[in-house]
Amino acid sequence: MKEIRTATINPGDPAGTSDLILIGQPIVFDTPAVIGGQYTEVVKRGALDNTDMSDCRLLYNHDLSKVPLAKTPKTMQLTVSPAGLQMKAQLPDTEEARSVHTAVKRGDLSGMSFSFTVPPGGDSYDAATNTRTINKIAKIYECSICPWPAYSQTSVEARSIMETAKQKIGQIDQMKIKINQILKRGI
């Protein structure tokens, strides 16, 4: 199931150029983030080892109906660093690209988001701490520059993992109650 997360972005402005360049870090490793106010998520260092980033687009606000602002590998480079995923994009000289670049430069847009898939077994959920840990990302589909750097929904896959773990905790709690009731009767 494809998922989306957010991070920050900055305008690149190399000295002596007027190029429309954006530089960002859409993924930060080993940093807990609250997703949609519902659970904590951590992308572990190494989660991007062997991840498919060969056909990734840069979009504005996940709008697939518009022409991408950049694409790997020609006009956007994605690089894994010890801190996370680094992005550098050369935007086209279009009205939309200039508007996005200007808004980032002014600080009106400061968030990035990315959509991705996790392979089976690539994540885990700890119901006790309400934390999802992503150990492996299979593919990154797109990075987006967004007006709000918080994504309020989770994927069906993530909800399924969390709901199963919560159900197991609930079943264990119910069994503890029944055992206590039986023990009280025996005394």
TrEMBL record:
<dbReference type="Pfam" id="PF04586">
    <property type="entry name" value="Peptidase_S78"/>
</dbReference>
<dbReference type="InterPro" id="IPR006433">
    <property type="entry name" value="Prohead_protease"/>
</dbReference>
<keyword id="KW-0378">Hydrolase</keyword>
<keyword id="KW-1188">Viral release from host cell</keyword>
<feature type="domain" description="Prohead serine protease">
    <location>
        <begin position="21"/>
        <end position="165"/>
    </location>
</feature>
<dbReference type="InterPro" id="IPR054613">
    <property type="entry name" value="Peptidase_S78_dom"/>
</dbReference>
<protein>
    <recommendedName>
        <fullName>Prohead serine protease domain-containing protein</fullName>
    </recommendedName>
</protein>
<keyword id="KW-0645">Protease</keyword>
